[in-house]
Structures are given as structure tokens and as C-alpha cells.
Amino acid sequence: MVFGTFSDKSEPLEQYLGELGVGMVKRFFPRPVRILGYSRQRIHGNWKLYAENLRDTYHASLLHEFFVTYGVDRATQKGGVKMDPRHRHNMNHAYAASDSQEEAQKAYADTAARLDRMRLRDTKLLQFKNEFPDGMNLAAPVFFPNALLIQINNTIGTRQIRPKSVDAHEVFQTLYAFVDDDEDSVRHRLLSANLVGPAGFVSMEDGEAIEVIQKATKSAGDACAVIEMGGRGPLRDLAHRSPSRRSAAFWSYWAELMGVEAPGGIR
Questions:
Q1: pLDDT (tens digit, 9 = 90+) per residue, 16-36?
Q2: Per the confidence metrics, is the pTM higher than 0.85?
Q3: Cα separations (Å) of 245 from 72, 229, 239, 250?
């Protein structure tokens, strides 16, 4: 019985991934790995909402209060966005300790985020040991249509977006370590993994946001809207992610939609 065949017109994998994709695969797998574990998360929202969520540079430094409070990902950090020439694949990235607490407090002064409201008694979860030549502590290369690699500090893994129906999908995550990692390194990766997954300090908010959007838009099935996240103009790589360097018009529009004032310091 034949269930299906691959088209002979498909381009070779390396050509499909392009220089960006091939480079990221090599970056994430510089040496042999071993699997640490798996997780499955069912989200009641269309799978394309998750794909768009991964490409959005704004929400992580606004929605994820854990990121903002403890300096894992803030709008004031250095970072950027890269794409393949055909704009199929995308990567958001950021660099740890590339801003100061004073810069962040000023930028978030008029938002609901309180950078001094919470403290961790055990800060091991926040520790980042740079292990890649590029120095990134956050990297999320997304390969069209439904695969990605993910690094949040020292947690590294892969994710697959698996559509289940028009209004549900599953995120299948595989976490790994390198075979030459010592016991302390593996333990640190596992500790950092508390940020991700179905009940992660960060990832659980993504699932909730997607389900809220699904509920809010399903009643308007014939309607459509487009927001150009980087402002109008040609698509291009950006050496930053900060709204202050993007579109003031978008930021004002976002604030109007949400019924709040635009965040101070990052207009």
C-alpha cells in the first residue's frame, strides 16, 4: 500500500533552508546530542496563530512578565530579526546583559510591568552560561511551515506545530543536551526548562493568548485585518527589535486598540 510519495520537483533540503536555515541547524547541533525529554501541549487555536506568535518580536517583552522582570528578554536588549531571501524562514534573537536595569526601568515606567515587584530566592533558574560563539541567549529560528529550533538561555530544543483541526493544534517539544555535557550542565538545562512547556513560567502564557485570540476572532470568519509589524515598506532584516526604532504609528495604534497609553521610553 502506498500512502504518498515525495514530489521530484521539491528543491533539495539545504536549498530550501537557505543560508540562514543551514547556518542555524549547524549552530544548534555543533556536536552530538542526547535527548533529555519530550512534552506535548494541546492549544485550542488555529496552528497558524502559533506560527505567527513565534515571529512576533513585540509580545515577548510585553506579555511575558517573567522575561521582563528578570531581564531574560526586554525591549531594551540588543537583538534583531533575520529572514531567508524568500521570507519563508525567520529568526528572532537577543543578547543577554545587553541593557541595564536603569534603561529597562525607564522604558517600562508607564506599563503594567513592575521590574522591582518580585525577587527569586534561588536565582539558578536565571543563570546563563554562554556556549555559542555568537553570544545569543535567545534564538528562535522558525522554518516554514511548522518547525523550529528554540534556545532560551541554556535550554535548547526543537518544536513541531502539529495541526489537529481548524481550531486546535499540538506543540511537540524535544529538549536535548550535548553528549559531552557534564552532570552540572545537564542539571542546569533541566532547571532552565521550567521556562518552557505546557506549564512553563513563560510558555503557558503563549497558549492562553492564542486561545483568547481564537475565541475573539472565530465569530468574524469572513473578516480580515493586517498589521505590518515593522511599519510599511520593503521586508528586510533588522538589527534591533525595539519598537522605538520601528513604527511609532504602529505603537500608537496598538495602544489605542488595547485602551492604554503607549509605553513611555520606547515610542
A1: 999 999 999 999 999 999 999
A2: no
A3: 20, 12, 10, 11
